[in-house]
Amino acid sequence: MVEYALRRALYGVLVIFMVTVFVFLALRAVPGDAVRIQLADAPGVTEEQIAERTAALGLDQPVLTQLFHFLGGAITGDFGASFSDGSSVGGLIADRLPVTGQLGLMALAIGVVLGVVIGMASAVRPNGLLDQSLRLVSVSGLSVPSFWLGLLLVTYLAVYAGWSPPLIYQGPAENLGGNLAQMTLPALALGAAAMASIARMLRSSLLEVLQSDHLRTVRARGAGRGTTLFKHATRNSLLPVFTVLGLQAGGILGGTVILESIFGIPGMGSLTFEAVQMRDYPVVLGCVIVYGAVFVVVNIVVDLMYGVIDPRVRYR
Amino acid sequence: MTDRSVPSSAASLAAQTTVPGTVRRPAGRALWRFVREQPFAAAALAVIVVLVLLSVLAPLITPFGPTEQNRSAIQQPPGGRFLMGTDDLGRDVFTRVLYGARTSMLVSVVTVVAGGAVGVAIGIVSGYFGGRWADSLFQRIMDTLMAIPGLVLLLFIAALLGPSIRNSIIALSLLVIPAVNRVARAEMLRIREEPYVDAARANGCGLPRILIRHGLPNLFAPLMVIASLLFAGVLIAESALSYLGVGTPPPTASWGRMLSEGTKFLEIAPWMVVFPGGALTLAVLAFNLLGDGLRDFLDPKHRR
């Protein structure tokens, strides 16, 4: 177990390293000079100023030198300085990451709770009316684009309930109510896909487990439908659900880019989006790498959780 | 899986004209069996066909042009002359939804086909050499692409290349390639152990021939399933890109772009957002249902 965890962590570090190299080289491979694009709008820029700025940013060095320089900084969390205002990219990300963390965890929690409830309710009477309608709900949840769902939620709440989420962000420490009022709708929209795939996976996994020998024994001993389902079947069905969780984490993380922009939440997503619009390459670089790192870590944690849920899982 | 008739080596040498590894059956009967066994997926297929027809025949269906502005009818609610209302420039939303379907479908088809082809190529070569250096090299690259959350990778690549339909296709392909590679590689790892591959090798078949004539036909079924599900994902991703302003450039009608234009007018003209989003959801739902149905239809293990 420990050895597996170490090996997994080591490969994770390698993948994050490869992501860093890939993102860095992709930025450099694109035609167009970052400094020129940056300064193009400023009136009366001379060639000397461009050369000066390029040298100051180290962009006149060979690409490999730049790469090693960047990697050296990245290891200590130093991703350089933002083009637009010179603030530290690492600092920007450190400010924004907790906000996105909260949003992502809320989305995940909504997805897991609703998904498990729907999945179990579906499995009580397979192909019954409840099951059929819940399956329709889940396949729709899987198909609705999260940003459209977010927009619809805002519109209909505003039109029919006369309520709109606040647009000024407040931290959970200063105003928990206001914070949750703003975060709940995007979390719901983001969690819908996770909810749907967890419900589907749990349903089919439950149905399989319910047909197994040991559950026949449980039923033969006189256990009711509820005991069978809740006490004996669910735990055995959770493993595939965890696999889905790891996959859905990618969707939730990616979705923050768009939903944070819609709901005016100052997290990693809106930071990334703004940086992309302003062509603030150091910030873009740092954001993509941190997103990748978070995703890699989530997947390692999910893999390690298998063993906690199901002791029969042997790590190789 | 599909039926895997083992091509005898003699037959595969003699019958060069037909593809070994497949049994030709009338397509009509297979379709009929599909309709009976998977009614939901069949209905989804019908919806897809209708959507494609509507978008192809758009100029015959609607009297308006996709960028035609009716200055006298700005943000008209649905009904009357304008089935789905008009937008802030007086353009007919129904017309733009139809033309948007063209954009979305075109981008998705090209992405799934091109990205799928690259993914299959990488996957089958990797799978055939499973565990050796070529496999390791390819899979490390795929792991790198998959380590970045989809939309973040898309935004990054699309922003680097600039907003255009061609560039969206390139960016979206980077999501399709690793997913297809994964399926193709897993299947090829299994196929390379099959006796018919040994037989082909013993007969002196070269690598390309083994991969294309003996590998490809046998991973056709899982590829159809993943292609359908990926199509759904690409439709959403393409709209997300256009929504963020780095996908299809204006004034071309695209569902994502329509959604972002409508966001400003959510409370006064909700139809600007409801209809393009509804069309997108319907298309995605149809491809998801089709993919699910195909999986159950082609893989007896999934049947319940």
TrEMBL record, chain A:
One GO cellular component term: plasma membrane
Q: Where in the cell is it found?
A: Cell membrane
Q: Where are the transmembrane segments?
A: 9-30, 103-124, 136-163, 183-202, 238-263, 283-309
Which keywords does the record carry? Answer: Cell membrane, Membrane, Transmembrane, Transmembrane helix, Transport
Asked whether the keyword Manganese is assigned, the reply is no
Q: Which Pfam families match?
A: BPD_transp_1, BPD_transp_1_N
Q: How does it sit in the membrane?
A: Multi-pass membrane protein
Give GO terms for biological process.
transmembrane transport
| UniProt keyword annotation of Membrane present | yes
Output the superkingdom of the source species.
Bacteria
ABC transmembrane type-1 domain: residues covered: 97-306
Family note: Belongs to the binding-protein-dependent transport system permease family.
List, alphabetically, the PANTHER family matched.
Answer: DIPEPTIDE TRANSPORT SYSTEM PERMEASE PROTEIN DPPB-RELATED
User: What's the name of the protein?
Assistant: ABC di/oligopeptide transporter inner membrane subunit
UniProtKB/TrEMBL annotation, chain B:
| Superkingdom of origin | Bacteria
| Compartment(s) where it occurs, according to its Swiss-Prot or TrEMBL record | Cell membrane
PROSITE patterns from the xrefs? ABC_TM1 (PS50928)
Question: Domain ABC transmembrane type-1: where?
Answer: 101-291
Under Gene3D superfamilies, the record lists: MetI-like
Keywords, alphabetical: Cell membrane, Membrane, Transmembrane, Transmembrane helix, Transport
User: Entry's InterPro entries?
Assistant: BP-dependent_transpt_permease, MetI-like, MetI-like_sf, OppC_N
Q: What is its main location?
A: membrane
What membrane topology does the UniProt entry give?
A: Multi-pass membrane protein
What GO biological process terms are annotated to this protein in UniProt? transmembrane transport
Q: Does the keyword Transmembrane apply?
A: yes
Q: GO CC terms for this protein?
A: plasma membrane
Tagged with keyword Flavoprotein: no
Chain segments annotated as transmembrane: 40-61, 105-129, 141-161, 219-237, 268-291
Pfam families for the chain: BPD_transp_1, OppC_N
Report the sequence similarity comment from the record.
Answer: Belongs to the binding-protein-dependent transport system permease family.
Q: What is this protein called?
A: Diguanylate cyclase
What is the organism of origin for this protein? Mangrovihabitans endophyticus
